[in-house]
Design a protein that fits this description.
Helix content of chain B: 25-40%
Largest interface: A-B, 15 and 18 residues
Distance between the termini of chain B: 32 Å
Radius of gyration of chain A: 19 Å
Number of strands of chain B: 5
Shape of chain A: globular
Structural class of chain B: alpha+beta
Shape of chain B: globular
Strand order of the largest sheet of chain A: 1-2-3-4-5-6-7
Order of helices and strands of chain A: HHEEEHEHEHEHHHEHHH
Oligomer: heterodimer
Mean pLDDT of chain A: 95
Amino acid sequence: MHDANIQRLLAQRSFTELGARQRARALLDADSFRELIDPFARVMSPWLARQGIVPQADDGVVVGKGLLDGQPALIVAIEGTFQGGSLGEVGGAKIAGALELAAEDNRNGTPTRAVLLLETGGVRLQEANLGLAAIAEIQAAIVELRQYQPVIALIAGPVGCFGGMSIAAGLCSYLLVTREARLGLNGPQVIEQEAGVDEYDSRDRPFIWSLTGGEQRYASGLVDAYVADDVEPIRQQLIALFRQGKPALQRSRQHAWFLERLQGVDTSIQADAAAVRRAYQGEQP
Amino acid sequence: METLSFEFPAGQPAQGRALVGCVGSGDLEVLLEPGSVGSLTIQVVTSVNGSAARWQQVFERMFRAQSLPALNISIHDFGATPGVVRLRLEQGLEELSHA
C-alpha cells in the first residue's frame, strides 16, 4: 500500500507547479506548440513602466497554436506569478485577438478549438479601463467562438480566477478545476473589506476554499469537471470533453434557473459550504 | 524602478536564443539573444533603485571565470538577490547551449 502510494506520487507530474508557457506546451500534442507574439517580439505593457513597475516581455500572457488530440487548437495561458495574472491592454488584446482568429478559422473551414488556462485576479488596476475593455472583448470572443467549437477553461491554482475573468470562465463551454483552484467574482480580500472580517475572514484559508474552492464549485454544479493536479489526466479530460462536442445548452444560457436559485437564498443567515451546495441543488434545464 | 546598461567583451555570436524566469517577487526574467561579434550587452530593468554597483559586481564575478559568446541580454528584475540572478543567468546560458 505504502509502495503503491509512492509509485503513484512518482508517476504524477504536477500541473500547478508549471509556469504558463510550460503549461501550454504540456497540454498540447507533443512538439506541436507554436507561440504567437512570443516574448522576443517584446510587445509589452506601455503603462507599467510609467508607473514604476517592471514589465514582462510577454505581458504575462502566453498565446499559442498547435494540435490537441490531432485537431487544431488555440491555447492561452496566463502567468499568475506576474502581477497576480492581472490582465492589461496588451495581454488582454493577445487573448481576445487569438480567440477572434480561432472563430475566423472556423468560418474558413479549420475547426480550431480553444483552451484557456486561467490564473488571474482579473483586470490590472494600473491599466484600468483598457484592461476592462480587453476583458469585455475576451468575453465577446468566447461567446463567438463557442458557437463553432467548445471553448474549455481550466483553473488550476494557486491564484484562481476572479473579477471580470470569472465571468469569462462562466461563459466557456466547459470549465475544469483542481482542488487548488478558486473561482469567484470578488477575491477574498475585497469581500472582507466590504462585508467585514467577522463575516468573511480572507486569512481563514479552509473557510475561503470551502466557499470558493474547486471542490465546492464542482459540488455546486458550477463547473463541469474536478481534476487531479496531474498533467496527463488533465490532458485526457480536455480531450474527452472536446470529443463530446459542444454542450446541448451553454451554462450561461441557464441564467434564469441560476437567478431563481439565488433569489431563494436567505441572506440573513451566514452561508456555509453545505448551504451553498443545497442552494444549487435541483433539476437544471 | 531604473534601467541600467552594461557591456563586456565576448566571442562569436551565440546560436539561438533563450528565455528563463519570470517577473515575480524575488525573481527575474532573462532574455538572451545573439549579439554583435565581440560584445556582450546587458540591459537591466529593475524594481530596486541604486543597485548598479551590485549588478556590475555580479556580472564581473560571473564573466571572469568563463568566456562568453556575443549576446544581447535583457533582464526584467523584481527584486531578485544576487544568488538568484546568477542562477538564472547560468540557467539561460545552459539553455542556449542546448538551443
